[in-house]
Amino acid sequence: MTQTNPCPVAIVTGASRGFGKALTVVLLDRGWAVVADARRAAELETTATELNSARLIALPGDVTEASHRDALVAAAINAGPLRLLVNNASRLGPSPQPALADYPATELSAVYQTNLFAPLALIQAVLPALTDNGGVVVNLTSDAAVEPYPGWGGYGSSKAALDQLSAVLAAEAPAVPVYAFDPGDMRTEMHQAAFPGEDISDRAEPESVVPALLRLLDTRPASGRYRAADLALSGARR
């Protein structure tokens, strides 16, 4: 009997809506199995019902909790060769966002737990499998990591730390490409929370940004920080 190759497996955090959901849809269409999580169990269940794929493993939970991360990793390893980790889940912090002089320490700690410490913990857990399977790490970053926007000190500094973490990991584990991916402004719930009461209908839909990340996964350039806008331009010039 001919054995078929098992489908590649991805872990995508924050996959019930926004960019995480849009990416999950495309990965499933490409034949991947996706282990997806989200803090809001009802939203994740709705997404799973909508996508209706046997290759989608939906596990609600908070990535800051070690037991939930263990469940994500176990499910992914059991599903097949783990080849992709996308640390997409993020925490904005208070809305409207406070100035650093007024930033509550407990809120700042929660932002860092989600945006920095949880991604590192997941990376540590899956790095051996990604190394064995020729996998990739993608960490979602932001232009707030490199631009000093007033009011973005908590979120922006956490993403700046994630950028540096990505760069150091790439230097320490050269067998695994590590991409800090900046999708740019998108029309998402989190972006709306960053601009309460403002019209953000001019921002890009998450689905329109996914092709830029797929270009990274398909072409496998050197590890580094990549902007979706630049990847879209490079693709258009081909």
Short description:
By secondary structure, the protein is of the alpha/beta class. The protein has eight helices and seven strands, in the order βαβαβαβαβαβααβα.
Q: How would you sum up the major sheet?
A: 7 strands, parallel
Strand content: 5-15%
What is the element string, with H for helices and E for strands?
A: EHEHEHEHEHEHHEH
Quickly give the CATH architecture.
3-Layer(aba) Sandwich
Spatial sequence of strands, sheet with the most strands:
3-2-1-4-5-6-7
Structure report:
- The chain is an alpha/beta fold and 238 residues long.
- The longest helix is centred in the middle third of the chain and has 29 residues, at 105-133.
- Helix 5 (153-172) links the parallel strand 5 and strand 6 (178-182).
- Helix 1 packs across helix 7 (206-219).
- It has one domain: NAD(P)-binding Rossmann-like Domain (Rossmann fold, 3-Layer(aba) Sandwich).
- Helix content is 48%, strand content 15%.
- The mean pLDDT is 93.
